[in-house]
Amino acid sequence: MPSHVKLLLTENVESLGIVGDVVRVRLGYARNYLLPMGFATTPSDELIASLAEKRAEAEKQVAERRKQREEMISKLDGQELTITRACNDQGHLYGSVTQQDIASALREVGFAVKPREVRLPGAIKRVNTFDILVKVDSDLEAHIKLWVVPDRELDMDDDEEMEFDNEGELIIKDKKKPKAEAKSEEAAEAAAE
Question: How confident is the model over 125-168, as pLDDT tens digits?
């Protein structure tokens, strides 16, 4: 039993071909999707000739869409995008920023980008800046800078490191006293011992 079959596309199928293309696909894909949905049929010379006009129209649409995508990519390259998210005091997001979030934000500013065209370098789970690749076709891509910012002002603790004495006891520092006063007090305590 063959694992692949040749079919004539009667409709445009994304990432497979346009009307009138004779394609070789897996038997399961043909049997379960293309044939029942009416996107393909068995090829014959008469069918190919009858689809010539429809194919010419599809080629025009593909060329127009390609032109629009090229224009969009030229405008999109180098853009900066800001997304505001809730996070804890260390800058860890309570959720992550997804491809869907970025695509939605790009659509809001006028770029028709699908979520699967946004390529993330990894999970975005921190407040930071990220370089994001948007790839709309095999040879059309743009790089954008994504700023993930907190929804509130973060309390970044500027605490000094804890210090311990020789016996392993924590040294408690009085934050209200200037360092010079604290040092003079330490010197006086050392002299008294």
Answer: 999 999 999 998 878 889 999 999 998 887 765 555 667 777 77
Between CA 130 and CA 26 the distance in angstroms is 39
Range of the domain at 29: 4-50
Asked if the structure places residue 58 within a domain, the reply is no
pLDDT tens for 47-59 read 888 888 888 998 9
The CATH number for 112's domain is 3.10.430.100
Instruction: Please count the structural domains in the chain.
Output: 2
Pull the structure tokens for residue 123: 């999970």
* CA dihedral angle for residue 160, residue 162, residue 163, residue 164, rounded to 10 degrees: 170
